[in-house]
Amino acid sequence: MKNVWFIHNSQAGNTERLSNQFADALKANYDVKVGSIDSTRPEDIINGNPDALVFATRVEAFGADRKMTSFVKALGDVIKVPIPKVATFYTHALSWKKMFSKGMKKALEKSTCIDEICPEFLEIRLKGAGGPEREGQEDKITQYLTMLKEFIG
User: Domains in the chain, ordered, with CATH?
Assistant: First the structure.
């Protein structure tokens, strides 16, 4: 069974809750782990030997969470064998702008620890900083899960 990790940096709990929701939806097909960047070291991920890694990040100051992009860099500094598949999703309470994903995309593309980056990502708009999701996000979540399964294989 393939090993899939979800790594998040949740401030208000939305990104963590969604990571756990996605993990629960994938447990029938994959061995899934969920961790916070505050309690998960890059070495923990390496020792977990992931086939896929999903970065769950929040938008802060109109861009991807800087703490998460720093974690991606730190991961690249210690991993010797690249992670086969990497995907990402974002949570935010703003009108979506393409620029929000630039920092994370750049961090992933620069990383030497990734074989393939999923070309699709999910952005989940929240009602406010404390969530929950705005109405109409359920279909996007379902489509993302389907796409994620196909991407991971």
Answer: 3-152 (3.40.50.360)
